[in-house]
Amino acid sequence: MAVEQSSTSIDKEDHSSKQRCCTRVFHWLMWIALLSYALGRFVTGEVSTSLPKQLPYMFSVDVRRSPYGVDRKWDLSDEEWREGRLFMVKAWPWLVLHSVVGRLLGHAAPSLVPHYHAAYSLLFVSLELGLSSAAFFVVEHAVFFALAWLGLPVLSYLVAFLMVSHFDLFGYDLFTIVLESHGHSSYFVTVVAFYWTVLRCLSFCMDFNSRSKDNKMAANRRGRQRLPSYWKTLSYAVYLPPLFLGPVQNYDDFLSSAEKPRPAFTLREFVTCVAGLLRTAVHFLLMDLMCHYFYSSALKKAPHLIARLDLTSLVGYGLALNMLFFMKYRIQYGLSGGVARIEGHQLPAPPKCIFRSHLCSHFWRYFDHGLHLWIKKYIYLPIVGSKRKTHRKLLAVAVAFASVWVWHGMTSAVTFWASLSFLGIAVELVLAQIRRLDCCKTFESKHIDPGQRRFIKAVLGSPHYLLTIFACMFYLADMEITTMLFNRVILGFPLPLVPVLVALYFGAHVSQDAMDCEASGAAKEATAGRTLPLFNQEAAEHSTFQPLEVL
């Protein structure tokens, strides 16, 4: 009898496991099929196919003729991607040489590496962007170096705020001299790199003050306060791979990675570095090909044509904007991280695909993981404190998105983007707090099994996913286009709102599967006692620290 019961139990477990597997495959297939259908309708629609004729000035430059033999026109109207692409094409030999020499120097004379990083980066900036651009970065670093010596955190934050918002507040462009002397491309790269460097400089300033809190007032033999290392902080501020491409990395994390012993450059390490760069090259090629079919950037210049899109094509247009947004940063962060890896340096990981991030908190944590760590360390945690009360978390999240609002330009569209993102994470915080109540814990343990929990997560995650995507639309498009999407999609009940929510329900299941897979892989690596690669380290972090997850 016991043997029969055991056999029956095993059969039930096998049947349940097969059923779960089939259900997950169904969710993935439905999500991929629905995404492909909406994107396909947008690409093949009359508005998209006729766009080069409707807006010939968007496709008239010679560089936009395809080098890939594709008959369709090439949309390079997205300034951020166009200039970023041009920078990567021109700068990749500089980047690779920078890391190769840095790797060799790290083995031969490690003490000279900071000097080399600073000198090489400033040489590159001087030759490619101009001496005025190099001067901006040197002066920017000098200002924060002095602030670190003064040890006044509030003043440091104020100076950083003024550097980032000077144009929005006063309408004065510091970088006009670069535009006039070296053209628009150098101007664009200088401006973006300057803004990234503000975050890096504030990071070394705050990290130095934090480490020196207990002993900063102690004088040396001459009665002077200790200063941060000039060359280490300068090499960090202008470290070439992420100087323009990003991502930002906190100063202490940079030092920890830069100063750790370099492993031997084995064949396996060489293959890993080459594979990482080839992966980015494939993404680069894929992005170029997608720009021949997804004219979402050019279409932003013609809202009257967007109004002519049918409902499915309109949804596909929104998906295309988000997809190209992800690809752009996946390539830039992938290249900078891959090049830094040659030197043995680990930058924050590139973004995770937005089509598998149904939580607003997950999107903000992993789309730009470096920026997330920066905000967490210098804005969120100082406000939350050690007690981590819900009201302090809400305040910290509000201030964090206020900083995002300032850094991305204080426009009306960015205001809505930051506000809706705050709303999404605030909802997660409140629901997480409700779930911690004893009555909710008791009800969940008695009446909700794991399968039902996944279903509830997906049902709640579907509108939450829509909120996250819609919030990004304000940043990716403009007020007029996003208002049009709001009126036609979100207010479009039952069509297309209900089908969109059903599709996002499948997307929420896919997102949970991806999270579970990463957490499982990280747990196996940890159990085996091996050092976690960067990707799995983040998966482990997600599996053990999820304060903002709804369920």
TrEMBL record:
This entry carries the following GO cellular component terms, namely: endoplasmic reticulum; membrane
Q: Give the source's domain of life in one word.
A: Eukaryota
Q: Where in the cell is it found?
A: Membrane
MF GO annotations: palmitoyltransferase activity
Q: Where are the transmembrane segments?
A: 25-43, 118-139, 146-167, 187-208, 307-326, 394-410, 416-434, 455-477, 489-508
Which controlled-vocabulary keywords does the entry list?
A: Membrane, Transmembrane, Transmembrane helix
How does the protein's chain sit in the membrane according to the entry? Multi-pass membrane protein
Q: Would you identify the family this protein belongs to, as annotated?
A: Belongs to the membrane-bound acyltransferase family. HHAT subfamily.
What is the protein's given name? Acyltransferase required for palmitoylation of hedgehog hh family of secreted signaling
